[in-house]
């Protein structure tokens, strides 16, 4: 499997990806790092939604990613919920140094199931992996949750750029596979054509002096 960055406007797939999670977990910084290879220590809360676009190549397919960064505050949930409907995939972020943000992962997961189409792929990301001394959630706790709900999981650091590229490339590969599977499952099967027993038909016609018709009005088929 090969991954490549491309600026080509043409693409084979267009994916709308939503990034959700509690306020302050690092959704904006991970998107800035991926889209522009930029990191800032200044925290500015996202108001409503914002998005970035980047086109990447997964194997031989060009995938245009429209990645939506959403506000984590409760007062914006009514606005954000409308963006779930057409999402091809959702990334749920939590802060490895904040237990509450991990506890709330399940609430965000329920939001996905409530608003997104059924079987929408979900990717779980633990942020701020560079802050090892402040880590509050063990890998085993997270892995148990991810395995229970069959969600892919990866730990990232926007500051050191650890696994940022990998999480989006891996998730894009998942979206390509999912899209292809959905297209196959919705592809109409060819209707079986009715067959005519020609030999049987000849026998039926030959047995009637009216060529298979009785009284000139009713015909056998």
UniProtKB/TrEMBL annotation:
Arranged from A to Z, the UniProt key words for this protein are: GTP-binding, Membrane, Nucleotide-binding
Q: Which Gene Ontology cellular component terms are annotated?
A: endomembrane system
Q: What Pfam families does the database record attribute to this sequence? A: Ras
Location in the cell reads: Endomembrane system
Which InterPro entries does this UniProt record tie to the protein? Answer: P-loop_NTPase, Rab, Small_GTP-bd, Small_GTPase
Q: Name one GO molecular function term.
A: GTP binding
Q: Which domain of life is it from?
A: Eukaryota
Oxidoreductase keyword on record: no
NCBIfam families associated with the record = small_GTP
UniProt cross-references to PANTHER family, sorted A to Z? RAS-RELATED PROTEIN RAB
What is the name of the protein in this document? Uncharacterized protein
């Amino acid at each position: 499997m090969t991954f490549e960055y491309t600026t080509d406007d043409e693409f084979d797939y267009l994916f709308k990806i939503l990034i959700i999670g509690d306020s302050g977990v690092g959704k904006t910084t991970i998107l800035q790092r991926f889209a522009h290879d930029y990191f800032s220590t200044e925290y500015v809360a996202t108001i409503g939604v914002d998005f970035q676009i980047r086109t990447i190549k997964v194997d031989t397919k060009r995938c245009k990613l429209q990645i939506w960064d959403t506000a984590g505050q409760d007062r914006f949930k009514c606005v954000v919920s409308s963006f779930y409907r057409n999402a091809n995939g959702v990334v749920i972020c939590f802060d490895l140094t904040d237990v509450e943000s991990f506890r709330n992962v399940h609430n965000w997961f329920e939001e996905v199931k409530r608003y997104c189409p059924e079987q929408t792929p979900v990717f779980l990301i633990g942020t701020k992996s560079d802050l090892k001394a402040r880590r509050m959630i063990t890998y085993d706790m997270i892995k148990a949750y991810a395995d229970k709900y069959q969600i892919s999981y990866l730990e990232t650091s926007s500051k050191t750029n650890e696994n940022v590229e990998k999480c989006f490339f891996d998730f894009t590969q998942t979206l390509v596979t999912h899209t292809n599977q959905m297209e196959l499952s919705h592809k109409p099967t060819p209707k079986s054509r009715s067959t005519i027993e020609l030999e049987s038909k000849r026998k039926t016609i030959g047995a009637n002096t009216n060529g298979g018709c009785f009284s000139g009005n009713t015909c056998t088929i």
